[in-house]
Specification:
Blueprint lengths: L6 E3 L9 H15 L3 E5 L9 H8 L6 H5 L16 E3 L10 E5 L31 H26 L8 H4 L5 E7 L16 E4 L2 E10 L5 E6 L5 E4 L5 E3 L8 E4 L1 H6 L9 E4 L5 E8 L6 E2 L13 E2 H9 L21
Parallel strand pairs: 1-2
Antiparallel strand pairs: 2-11, 3-4, 4-5, 5-13, 6-7, 7-12, 8-11, 8-13, 9-10, 9-12, 14-15
Helix pairs in contact: 1-4
The structure holds 2-oxoglutaric acid and fe (ii) ion.
Length: about 350
Amino acid sequence: MTPDIETIGIADLFEPSSSARDRTDARIMAAAAGIGFMAVRDFPGDDWLTPDKRAQLLRLFALPDEEKQKLLRWNFDRSKKNVYRGWFPLQPTAVSYKEGIDMGPDLADAADASVSDDPLCEPTPLPAEDTLPGWRAAAADYYRAMETVGNALMRSIARGLGLPETIFDAYFDHGISTLRLIRYPLRNANAGVDIRGPEFSVVHKGETRTIIGREHADSGFVTLLAQDGVEGLQAKNLAGEWIDVPPANGTPAINFGQLLERWTGGRVRATRHRVIAPKTARFSIPFFYEPRVDAEITPLPLDGAEPFEPFLYGDYLWESATNFVEMSGIKHLRQPRSKKAS
Ligand SMILES: O=C(O)CCC(=O)C(=O)O
Ligand SMILES: [Fe+2]
């Protein structure tokens, strides 16, 4: 039998070096190199992982359509300038049946609102304060809390790989992490969309289940994913079987992204995951912990790791992220910044 997804207490990661911290590092590395999924508990800001606090962020979904439409991005509304940050509406013919918002670091620190011409650094369109009083401050606090946990995991992963714990630090100064809020409503059987195709359903435990989040691996370094009490998320284990990632308050699921998989020459696993339709609407809040846009990713000094050509994080991310359906039609809007790009 393959082991289940472990829940790891990470309080030690916020303390000075100790043998307890070494053990936590080793458990994290074992999860990262093994199943590629874990859950964590006991960290600063974990009060954000309670239903009440999450509900503060999810208030966004109760806004009237006209307010959500103000936040749309260019591929859904050609009058908008933002192409990467902002609202993505339901796309009923797509396998992934979800709506939501992608928010960047300017949410947490207005000074990060960019003067750059890079769409990966564009400011996030956000609802006006009087439309949703207190929401921005709550979302900004959440962003900062998850960034702190991301930092702690990043250092733990460095130590777990046997590298200096600060080896990744400079890459994450002014990172472009994304806080995403997602709502998956129930699919309306009368919407005139044919979802009988094989991509739209899977058989799980003998039952046919509709897919609402297409199978994928995340692009970034690590993802901190809060689920709102409703099942549906599944991860592919080492045996190639789909296992449930149960939603639990206080313990976000953590998975590792393709950037980290590449960077570590395959030592860490970017586990594929998907969402199958539950009986009620489902909400989730992934935080994609990511480096700075101009980080040059070069092979780490790891024995036996698969070598690779250095690349710029922004170039890699754009190529990868724009393959997702909610980013469709924007790939041509950014050219690689790498000097070596041909
Ligand atoms: O909704 C979920 O639980 C998963 C979301 C996800 O995998 C993603 O946005 O990358
Ligand atoms: Fe994901």
